[in-house]
Amino acid sequence: MRFEYTPNEQLTILSKGTEQIVSNEDFVQKLAQSYVTGKPLTIKLGADPSAPDLHLGHTVVLRKLRQFQDLGHDVVFIIGDFTGRIGDPSGKSKTRTALTVEEVRSNAETYKNQVGKILDLDKVRIEFNSSWLQVMNLADTLQLASTYTVARMLERDDFEKRYKNQVPITITEFFYPLLQGYDSVAINADVELGGQDQTFNLLVGRELQRAYGQEPQITMTFPLLEGLDGKEKMSKSLGNYVGISDTPKDMYGKLLSIPDNLMPKYFRLLTDLPEEEIKSLTKQMEDEPKQVKMRLAREIVTEYYDKETAQHAEDEFENIFGKSGDGLPDEIEIVSLTASAEGVPLQKLLVESGLLDSGSEARRMIKQGAVKVDQQKVEDGMKMFVPGDSVLLQVGKRKFKQVALTE
User: Fold this and answer.
1) Whole-angstrom Cα distance, residue 353 to residue 332?
2) pLDDT value of position 293
3) Which residue from 41, 93, 171, 404 has the highest number of Cβ atoms inside 10 Å of its Cβ?
């Protein structure tokens, strides 16, 4: 094939937003060779389906993968349905709980649908690493294990800390980076992408390729995206995430809650705006932080939906929280629930209506003063509602349900 962009032009595009490239010189060489021969590079990204939803933190790398795709290279998205059963120990202070085969498969199916919001699925090769890892026999496994030493494994930060603190490390955790690295051997990857917390695992892939007689891949790592709290890495378990499958309204509202100092990073890692415009918006933040944040939210919602939907989400948000609004969204889901003559306490109603996930969360939100009934704050979780009642429930600023109770 003939590439539209020269190797130097590709390097400029692909280097933007990276944390580290190992090595830059080899990357230039691979791009040049690909350009001359017309043979696309094989670009790898692996993801363990440890949770059913992808969030904006995952998209930092996925967006770069799309750039490779647009430049004409071959993208391989590896779903770690085998490694996901072990669990990536990166950054963990204790052994992770292994997922069941059923959990992994269920999560993997949702991953395929979600990555289609960013990647052109017609031009991406999706592989499950069980197809080569599950068929390895004991001899194959021992050969793989012989390529790395325990001393090298303990160079890894989290393993080193756990070893010094006498926190158990299982042998399967040592195998995780080896198995992930073997994925690169299986597809003969030219480049592998990952977050900066994956640096060790990606470099293991380079070493394994050498051991198996292949040219080592280039590793490209990217900054980790802080979540809505502005402190911790975006994570579903921490509740500081924006899901790429969130509704436009939720996505827009969550993005307006990020700390101001995160806006430049979000613009750079999550949008396609040119650097000069981002610098201009960063300067505008000094006088009009709300306007800039609204622009950021619009850009990101447009990315996963469309311009009209993003504008509607903004209009609805302004209706709820703007000076002229009555505090209610345009559309509120109506839920019909049954109740006995004695009625249902508020904390149970919040869970049964789907506003909250558990009774303990309901009690906590009521205690924090975050729950309203018919736009009035209620602090009694045992307040009863009986058949015939129709009440507007609200949790926080963005969750609403109109609940009708019947016998």
Assistant:
1) 12
2) 93
3) 41
